[in-house]
């Protein structure tokens, strides 16, 4: 049996994108044991995925710094992997004593295409590969029950994310939710993680009508809820990529980040930009943006009508 290590990421969205290599590897090495090395935050999302046999979480506390990285190398070498698929382009992957499959080339291409290019060069068939998450039957039933108990909303919405300057104001999301419910009879459920309390509070205060909130759901529960709905609306964050991976169409708001590199994967989705060009967007070099202002004026220039129109168009195309 071939033991394969896939070196994935610490952010949720990046980890979801990396699932695109599972099906090609599983097809090429049918009897392989596929292990994912992934950050401790997204690890529970990948744990239980049908094509992934083992999930190894890593953390900054245990594996950060020179000593921590050396510890990680020792831990991985003890497992004696045959192949390491390094999607991080990490130097230490060369120390693991296994055949290394690494990224090939750079350029302005989508992250998924970069990952598929790597495993394709190693002989895998990547023609139909894409990021994939599969809620279990139990998770799907639980999501359907939750939605039934909350008025059967058909649109999920996520307000948060890791960098504030990437986030559209929650008050505007509230206006979008109100318009979809009032004018198009489409209920909206806000999906919120443990760090989204302030933004959810602003949403609830601004909304003209109540909308259900799935507060502090697990990542697997979030994926099942999104999969059970007809559309996901949100910022460039992990839940946007989760929606793509479970097959739910997306309306995504971009400006500080580049949708060519990290947008929802596939032509069935809608990416919204304001059209404002300051000569610096997209930038996304860090937590405050290239301008260091902590906000992105082109993102703020996206208006509510744009988002409502895009959402309605997606819903009507079902």
Fold and architecture overview:
The protein is α/β, with parallel strands linked by helices and 318 residues long. It has 2 domains: 119 residues, 3-Layer(aba) Sandwich (Rossmann fold); 180 residues, Rossmann fold (3-Layer(aba) Sandwich). Helices cover 39% and strands 15% of the residues. It has 14 helices and 11 strands. It has a 6-stranded parallel sheet with strand order 8-7-6-9-10-11, with helices on both faces. Strands 3-2-1-4-5 form a 5-stranded parallel sheet. Helix 1 runs parallel beside helix 11. The longest helix has 15 residues. It is globular. 45% of the residues are buried. The mean pLDDT is 93.
Which helices and strands appear, and what pairs or packs with what?
Elements lengths: L2 E5 L4 H7 L3 H7 L4 E7 L3 H4 L7 E5 L1 H4 L1 H14 L4 E4 L12 E4 L8 H11 L15 H13 L5 E4 L11 H15 L3 E5 L4 H10 L6 E3 L3 H9 L3 E5 L2 H9 L3 E4 L5 H4 L7 E3 L24 H4 L3 H13 L2
Parallel strand pairs: 1-2, 1-4, 2-3, 4-5, 6-7, 6-9, 7-8, 9-10, 10-11
């Amino acid at each position: 049996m071939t033991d394969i290590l896939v070196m994935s990421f610490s952010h949720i969205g990046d980890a979801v994108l990396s699932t695109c290599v599972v099906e090609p590897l599983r097809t090429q090495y049918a009897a392989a044991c596929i292990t994912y090395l992934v950050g401790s935050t997204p690890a529970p999302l990948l744990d239980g995925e049908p094509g992934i046999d083992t999930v190894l979480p890593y953390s900054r506390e245990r594996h950060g710094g020179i000593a921590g990285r050396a510890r990680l190398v020792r831990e991985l070498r003890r497992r004696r992997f045959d192949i390491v698929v390094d999607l991080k382009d990490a130097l230490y992957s060369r120390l693991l004593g296994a055949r290394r499959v690494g990224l090939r080339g750079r350029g302005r291409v989508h992250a998924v295409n970069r990952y598929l290019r790597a495993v394709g060069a190693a002989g895998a068939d990547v023609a139909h590969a894409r990021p994939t998450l599969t809620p279990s039957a139990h998770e799907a039933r639980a999501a359907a029950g939750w939605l039934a108990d909350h008025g059967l909303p058909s649109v999920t919405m996520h307000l948060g994310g890791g960098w504030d300057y990437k986030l559209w104001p929650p008050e505007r999301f509230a206006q979008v939710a109100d318009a979809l419910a009032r004018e198009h009879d489409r209920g909206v459920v806000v999906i919120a993680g443990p760090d989204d309390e302030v933004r959810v509070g602003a949403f609830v205060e601004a909304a003209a009508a109540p909308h259900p909130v799935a507060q502090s759901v697990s990542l697997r529960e979030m994926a099942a809820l999104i999969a059970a709905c007809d559309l996901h609306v949100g910022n460039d964050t992990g839940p946007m990529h989760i929606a793509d991976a479970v097959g739910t169409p997306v309306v995504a708001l971009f400006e500080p980040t580049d949708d060519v590199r990290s947008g929802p994967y596939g032509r069935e989705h809608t990416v919204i930009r304001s059209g404002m060009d300051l000569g610096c967007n997209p930038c996304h070099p860090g937590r405050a943006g290239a301008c260091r202002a902590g906000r992105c004026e082109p993102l703020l220039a996206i208006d509510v009508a744009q988002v409502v129109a895009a959402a309605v168009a997606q819903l009507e195309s079902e």
